[in-house]
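Here is this case:
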Amino acid sequence: MGNKKLGLIDIWLLPLRALRRDNLKLLESLGAEEAALKLVELNVRAGVKVLEENPIVIDATAERGLKIHGLIYDVGSGELKELDIREDEETVRSRKTAFKTES
């Protein structure tokens, strides 16, 4: 992912560019293809985090056993790779404290 102006899509890409900025040292230490794959993984993990912080998702997880999965689709092979997104209990507890809302 470069910094070329793409027009209206630039606004949509801001979160991805911020993710790249936050992980620039890691991404620059990898080859171009590896860096692209790592950015995809980081983006999926960030999306999972957004879902996990949603109060409706927090309720559905606690009340109905909703499970969240982070998956990467490989267009070339047609395969799905599931990421390990398990968290320790302290992380889950602190997220509930910070993001769960009451009726």
